Amino acid sequence: MRLLDEWKEWAVQEGACPVPSQGYLLNHDRAILGKLSDNQSAIVRDSWTDVVDAPDFGAEDRTAFHLGLLPQPFMGDLKNAEIYVLTLNPGYSPTDYFGEYCVPEFREALLRNLRQEHTSPAKRNLHLDPQYAWSGGYGYWHTRLSGIILEFAKTRGWSYAKARSKLGEKLTIIELIPYHSLSGVYIQLPSTKLAMDFVKSHVLKRVRCDKAIVIGLRQADRENPCQLWSQVLRDLGECDGVYRYTSGQARGASFSLNAKAPGGRAILDWAIERWNPRET
Questions:
Q1: Pairwise CA distance, residues 266 & 264, whole Å
Q2: pLDDT tens-digit series, residues 29-52
Q3: What's the pTM?
Q4: Residue 262: CB partners within 8 Å, gap ≥ 6?
């Protein structure tokens, strides 16, 4: 599985080092993204002080990649997840810099995720770990998934914390682009192909075997007629276990149980059907 191998090697060799002048980049992406820092399409900051003292703090280019942050090509247990959410790229919040440069255990947790060395099932998805409730990832994903967690907890008679932990154990997010930006940005990169190949070779196999479901938040984009998740999911046709968002639904990325978008109901139904109520 090249996606796992490439990022694990990167985390060991590059991720533990100070940020290079061009930013944190997978070697295969360097020829393309390494040029961006020269034309303001990338922001490379190497400390929390550098962030808060920046003259454009709070008004950064929404489409610029923040290459001073560790890449985040995925979050969660890649091999064993039961719910895969396919999206464009990790967002950006100043708290991302604070966490990576001022909270060593958070940075190490991010590197462990890249190495797929999870310390416990409950720690597989940091975006659902209350220890990091101040982080941008938790704020984004927990907000969207909280309604599912609450309803599942009620159905099972579990505490909210137990239901959240279970979802964090089973849900994995895979990004088309591994670099942070405030607005979703698409650029064709070698790392994108790694992600797509992994979904084709591993995720779709799990879906066909009824071991997982996949939710594609990003579909064909008129402005970017390059390869996107819709082309990968098209291989499955109308296979059960594949949930596609329209372009309009993808913009809001809603998982509300009352929304027209299918993701929230699909996750809840899977959880109720598959996760043993007697589990502790």
A1: 5
A2: 988 887 765 555 888 999 999 999
A3: 0.91
A4: 215, 243, 244, 245
CA distance 104 to 248: 38
What tokens does 162 get?
């137990």
Backbone angles phi, psi at 44, to 5 degrees: -120, 105
Please state, in angstroms and rounded to a whole number, the distance separating the CA atoms of residues 57 and 54: 5
114: tokens are 């890249």
Task: Name the one residue in this structure whose structure tokens are 């996949």.
Answer: 214
What integer pLDDT is reported at residue 272 of this predicted model?
A: 94
End-to-end CA distance of the chain: 32
Checking phi first, is residue 116 left (phi over 0); if not, alpha (psi -120 to 50) or beta? left
Q: Could you tell me which of 118, 130, 8, 123 has the C-alpha nearest to residue 71? A: 8
Torsion, Cα 62 96 143 196, to 10 degrees, reads 70
Helix (H) or strand (E) holding 216: strand 213-216
Please identify which residue in the block is written with the tokens 């409730």. Answer: 133
Residue with tokens 């790392």: 191
Indicate the helix (H) or strand (E) that contains 32. helix 30-33
Residue whose C-alpha is closest to residue 26's, from 43, 9, 49, 39: 9
Residue pair 243/253 in contact by the 8 Å Cβ criterion: no
